[in-house]
Amino acid sequence: MATKLRGLLNLSKIDKNLITTNAKGEKCIWIDVVENYGNQPDQYGNTHAVVLYSKETGKIYLGNLKPQEFGAPRSQAPAPAAPAAPAPAQEPAKEEEDLPF
Asked: Of the residues 23, 35, 37, 74, which has the maximum number of CB atoms within 10 A of its CB?
């Protein structure tokens, strides 16, 4: 299996003057993906942060990322469950003589 980083970016935190245009005329921003301090997941399992740096405002946190496994190779896909073995034969229960019916 492979691991990807998944998260949500808060686009409302991006100042319009930080959006640039690339050679193809597409709107872009420069971001950094950084590991959490101490390389430890936070209380929600996030291991990385997406950060935008601005000279005017400093560091702007756009969101967090956490690892997520995906794409199990077919050769390692779980095998179908084997049928359960039949229960060992039991002796028939002896009838009690003083049944209420």
From this structure: 35
